[in-house]
Amino acid sequence: MVLEAVRPRVLATQFIPSVPPDLARAYSFSPEHSSAALVTADQDDALYVALDEATKQAPVEVAFARSLYAGSSHAPGPFSGECLGILAGASPADVREGLAACLRCLEDDACFYKADESGKLLIFPHVVSSIGRYLAREAELEEGRSIAYLIAPPIEAVLGLDAALKAAEVKLQKSFAPPTNTNFAGGYLVGELEQCEAAATAFARTIVELARSPRVV
C-alpha cells in the first residue's frame, strides 16, 4: 500500500531574540529561557512532530503548541495555518538551531497522506522511532520511546485505531476523541518500534478500505 504524501506548508517563521518577562510568563516559558522562535504551518500534527524533533536536536523546549479551531481551511489570517508553535531557548542561537531542525523535519519527514483517490481524505499514520522531550511530556512517557502517532477524521480514526490495536502489540497511551480543535481524532500508541510500524500500517490500510467502501450492510 502506497499513500501519496501531502507535504506541510510552512507559512511563517519569526524570532524574538529577547522575550519580555510578561510575554514569557503568558506563554509558559521556563525562567532560563528568554529567546523564542515562532512557526506556523498548515498541518498541526506534522508540526507537533517537528517541534519534538527540535527538542532532540537543540537545547530548546516547546513553550507553546496549539491547533486552531476548524483547521487551516478556516484560518484567521494568511499566515496562521493550522497551528502555532513556539520554541523557547536561552539564546537566539539556540532557538535558530531548534527551528532549523523543525523545518528539516517538516520538509523531509512528518506529513499527512491522501487515503482516497480524490485526495479529500487526509490521514496521519506517523511513527516516531524515538520521542523527544515535547512528545514525551504530551504522551506522559519517558524520552526515547517509540510511538505510532495516528490521526484521521472521526469515523476513520475509530476504525483505524481498532485495527491498529488488533494488529500489533501496542497500547493506546493517549486518545484524541472528537471533536478536537480541527475535528480530527486519533491517538498515541506505544510499543516496540516494529509494533508501532505494524500498527500504523494497519491504521492506514483500514482507512483506505473504508474510503473504497464507506457503507456496509
Explain what this protein looks like in three dimensions:
With 217 residues, this protein is an alpha+beta fold. The chain folds into two domains: 8-110, Alpha-Beta Plaits (2-Layer Sandwich), CATH 3.30.70; 115-212, BMC (bacterial microcompartment) domain (Alpha-Beta Plaits, 2-Layer Sandwich), CATH 3.30.70.1710. The protein has helices spanning 21-26, 44-57, 92-108, 133-139, 154-167, 193-212; strands at 4-6, 10-16, 35-41, 60-67, 83-89, 112-114, 122-128, 147-152, 171-176, 185-190. A six-stranded antiparallel β-sheet has the order 1-6-7-8-10-9, with helices on both faces. It has a four-stranded antiparallel β-sheet with strand order 2-3-5-4, covered by helices on one side. Strand 6 (112-114) and strand 7 (122-128) form a beta hairpin. Helix 5 packs across helix 6 (193-212). The longest helix has 20 residues, at 193-212. It is globular.
Average pLDDT score = 97
Total beta strand runs = 10
Spans of at least 5 consecutive residues whose pLDDT stays below 50 are none
Assigned CATH superfamily of the largest domain: BMC (bacterial microcompartment) domain
- The level 1 CATH classification of the largest domain is Alpha Beta
What's the CATH topology label of the largest domain? Alpha-Beta Plaits
| Number of individual domains | 2
Distance between the amino and carboxyl termini: 26 Å
Give the second-level CATH assignment, the architecture of the largest domain: 2-Layer Sandwich
Q: Which term fits the overall shape?
A: globular
